[in-house]
């Protein structure tokens, strides 16, 4: 299993990626549990697991998620959400989540999760948000006690196949002064366009709460269009299939001649951030089966605002440092490239401008001293 204590030194370099300041924009709470925590929480509620050995359980999640299908990939979450149905469970998971981000050098993280999936044992939606926030706050203090610094925010997700979008949007706005920084829709993408939740997005717009939308992962350009124009998305969750709107007309020794379609051009011109998660994308067959086939480098070289994310650290057996290391190893990126990815994320964070500028300053200082 990947651990957050691995340093991940760039090929030919000496700098540990783990020690660099980083920003995580796309990281699911129910996809980042520690295997031992799952075992402990399952025992308290009598939930049967495939194994009660932490190493074996971690391997089970990785294998289960490596299916080549988003629908199959999502089935692994039945286990994690089952042990996140109590205040104690939610708080512990959230606290450890922040601890693990801090250990990986993350200075700002947006943690997305769907409260509606955590009410099976009687909690109200508001109680779930409060329990998670208690854990996040405790995790922040834990990181500070180590001498490091981290800031986090909740991204409240509505499940796109359910009929609770407006209710969840109202929940997000209700807790905007209690840790919530934005809204998301998640779940099965194909067949469930953002337009189905237009009333929720209208409500968010009227209340000035920003939204990111899962799009361009398990569905193509029509889904991305829906995210942009029905969802008013300021960021695209994954968005890798935006590359379907990019045509390489010709290639020669001097380079390639590339034509952007209207959707790709719109996203690029407005600097709409792409929350790319390479390892997860390969697992779900969103784009390619090997990292060198992934559209990340194409999008980066063309000037899109690309960011690097884990999506689900447990399911992908990964960390943000590992994702950056693998990209650098595959595409020959250096520290300057990795800094660009973090500055892109800082610019796209759902924070006030002054706070985003402060994050950018922290990133620049950290990379300059590396």
TrEMBL record:
InterPro entries: A_deaminase_dom, Ado/ade_deaminase, Metal_Hydrolase. It comes from the Bacteria. One of its GO terms (molecular function) is adenosine deaminase activity. Its EC number is 3.5.4.4. Transmembrane segments: none annotated. The keyword Transit peptide does not apply. GO terms for cellular component: cytosol. Residues 21-364 form the Adenosine deaminase domain. Keywords: Hydrolase, Metal-binding, Zinc. GO terms for biological process: adenosine catabolic process; hypoxanthine salvage; inosine biosynthetic process. This is adenosine deaminase. The lineage of its organism: Bacteria, Bacillati, Actinomycetota, Actinomycetes, Micrococcales.
